[in-house]
Specification:
- Helices cover about 80% and strands about 0% of the residues.
- The longest helix has about 55 residues.
- Helix 5 packs antiparallel against helix 6 and helix 12 crosses helix 14.
- By secondary structure, the chain is mostly helical.
């Protein structure tokens, strides 16, 4: 019976930490609003233009600031007051949603303004996420960090399921104006909750930010082929097989406008199932192998979505894809959190942001460009097959990742020693 309980999600961080409850609540509220907007923006562009390329252009616009501000955001997280950075960024994101709301209320909404706002969404996101991710070690004892990681995954899955579904319903019934209004309110409430974090969140060690300080995280990553492999395999999976930009056109392909929100939510359903079984992950030591296998399976699932004969099988394939993506992400996080020195976490979190955020943006460009050439189904099928081939190439080129074993990896051993943790 005790063994069975060990596989369940650990909720101790939620029970024991007031600060964590504030962070979790704020993230759930603003995350839900962001998912509503994530449905509304591409739908509005598709309605304004009817163009694959116009929708996919969002990815190109968002990727540049993510690269620039992701690196600087990591350095800022290791140098400035992380709580203030997080709150300021949250306010900036809320202003972006307010601009979308005001634009959508116009008789002729500006496509250019939507693209400009998309750019600044990425700026604030790149500045905020490294500070937000590196806040937890300040606020929680080490024993509660695994619990917080599992709960965060559960939060992300639930908001990713409910947010797009609600966004699709709102957009289809009363229009995208109300989607953006909902998002503005969510950011306002989230910022108020974050402001109530205890004074421990204000603790920081001020360090001068120079170019060498910003790029020192990259220097460290270059010395770790296993880390580079985790970044690369995720980028490959997202660039070649990220399907979200095609969702407004998939509903036209199957004459199923009701399915838009469910398309966005379906991958999160599979991800949720994988998260609920996440307690087993701590028993897996060959974590690099699991990352590569899961990324390959993601590609197979996206390929099947491209050949599926009806919308229901498309949704099922996407659910499987989401489950495999969560498995890959879970083991990437385990490698990052157990082998990277604590004093480097902010800068490495900035690099991690680049690996898991720029891939989807570039993937939107690839998916829509390929759809222009080989059609909607051809884009999905070719992307899935290229993802599988790319994951295979990573297996060959980055043997340190494929052979990663938490029991013998020297960086994992060093961190267990430095954190006075001898458990495997």
């Amino acid at each position: 019976m005790a063994e069975k309980r060990s596989y369940r999600i650990d909720l101790s961080a939620l029970r024991e930490s007031r600060d964590y409850r504030f962070i979790l609540s704020a993230g759930a509220i603003s995350g839900f609003g962001s998912m509503v907007t994530a449905v509304a923006m591409p739908l509005q562009i598709a309605q304004l233009t009817g163009s694959y390329v116009a929708v996919g252009l969002i990815g190109l616009i968002e990727v540049v600031p993510l690269i620039i501000f992701g690196l600087w955001g990591g350095a800022i997280a290791d140098s400035f007051n992380r709580k203030r950075v997080v709150i300021a960024s949250e306010i900036g994101l809320g202003i972006c949603s307010l601009l979308l709301l005001l634009n959508a209320r116009q008789a002729q909404p500006s496509l250019l303004l939507i693209y400009i706002v998309a750019f600044f969404f990425s700026v604030f996101d790149g500045l905020q996420r490294p500070s937000l991710e590196s806040l937890l070690p300040l606020l929680l004892p080490t024993r509660l960090l695994p619990s917080a990681g599992a709960i965060n995954s559960l939060k992300w899955n639930l908001t990713s399921i409910a947010g797009p579904a609600v966004g699709g319903i709102i957009a289809a019934t009363v229009g995208v104006v109300y989607c953006y209004g909902f998002d503005v309110a969510s950011y306002a409430l989230s910022a108020l909750l974050l402001a109530r974090l205890s004074t421990r969140a204000d603790t920081h060690e001020r360090k001068p930010i120079s170019a060498s300080f910003v790029f020192s995280g990259l220097s460290y990553a270059r010395q770790r082929p296993d880390l580079l492999g985790t970044y690369l395999v995720d980028i490959i999976a997202m660039v070649f097989a990220f399907p979200n930009a095609l969702f407004p056109f998939i509903i036209d392909e199957f004459n199923a406008p009701w399915a838009l929100g469910f398309l966005y939510s379906s991958m999160s359903v599979g991800s949720l199932v994988a998260t609920l079984a996440s307690g087993r992950a701590k028993h897996v030591n060959r974590r690099g192998r699991m990352i590569i296998i899961a990324a390959s399976a993601w590609g197979v699932a996206i390929t099947f979505a491209g050949i599926a004969p009806n919308i229901y099988l498309v949704l099922l394939a996407l659910a499987f894809a989401g489950g495999f993506d969560m498995v890959s992400g879970l083991f990437r996080q385990l490698i990052w959190n157990t082998t990277i020195p604590l004093e480097m976490r902010g800068r490495l979190a900035g690099i991690e942001l680049l690996s898991y955020s720029t891939g989807p943006q570039l993937g939107q460009i690839r998916a829509t460009a390929a759809a222009n050439v080989v059609g909607l189904r051809g884009s999905l099928i070719s992307g899935g097959l290229m993802c599988f081939a790319g994951a295979t190439a990573v297996t060959i080129a980055f043997r340190d990742l494929w052979n990663f074993d938490d029991r013998t990896n020297k960086f994992a051993i060093q961190e267990r020693i430095s954190r006075h943790d001898t458990e495997i």
